[in-house]
Amino acid sequence: NSATELDLTLQQLDSELGPGRSLSGLVLDLRQNPGGLLDTCLDVTNRFLEKGTLVTLHRRNTADIVHTADPGKCTRPDLKIVIILDAGSASASEVFAGALQDHGRARVVGTRSYGKGVVQSVFSWTDHKERVKITTSYYLTPKGRNIENTLRPDSEKGKGGIGPDREVKFPKRETQRLALARLQQREVPRKHRKAVDELCAAHPDIQVFRPLDVDQDVQLAAALEEVRGLLK
């Protein structure tokens, strides 16, 4: 439901600005985002891209599969966008960031992403219960960059992944805190968060991790600076 949730969130942000006004700049925080379904990723990407290639699935000994933007699905063609990535950003989040970066629709802040750019297909047989999963293609960005990084981006010689336009590193301790805060937000359904907060407040021995404030989050601060620069 990511595309629908994105639409509703953008509408809510528009309404907060008042009648006749709409959002002009947006920071999308994809740190520690491991990805998801390709079709959903393409729908979300298409919200910001009116035309052109979104991603190419490069396959061996057969024709590539090229996914292109549908103009009818583009709802925010002029929105100024900055994306935050880190080494925990992988797969579909890299496809999204790579497409917007290649088309000049977004600037990327943070550190190089993980580099998970392979696609697996599962094969089965009607008379056997076994299944075989085989890597069948690679993700290529619109400019032909291979997202896959077999060396992993935390290696000094690592390639692949999506490199930032503005590199901003994060201390390891803050990175762990950020990851824990996101995990907690993901696991607690929205309708139960208030009750969980009240429970935690009543039990000070329970440690609750929250997203860092802007003055503590150097990557978010840099992203806000970038998006303000795009709006000048």
Question: What structural keywords apply?
Answer:
single chain, 232 residues, alpha/beta, 4-stranded parallel sheet, 4-stranded antiparallel sheet, 6 helices, 8 strands, globular
Task: Describe the fold and architecture.
The protein is of the alpha/beta class. Helix content is 34%, strand content 22%. It has helices spanning 2-17, 38-46, 92-102, 172-187, 190-202, 218-230; strands at 25-29, 53-59, 65-68, 80-85, 106-110, 118-125, 128-140, 166-167. The chain has a 4-stranded parallel beta sheet with strand order 1-4-5-8, with helices on both faces. A 4-stranded antiparallel beta sheet has the order 3-2-7-6. α2 packs parallel to α3. The two termini are 33 Å apart. 30% of the residues are buried. The mean pLDDT is 88.
Measured by DSSP, the beta-strand proportion falls in 15-25%
Radius of gyration (Å): 19 Å
Low-confidence residue ranges: none
What is the N-to-C order of secondary-structure elements (H for helix, E for strand)? HEHEEEHEEEEHHH
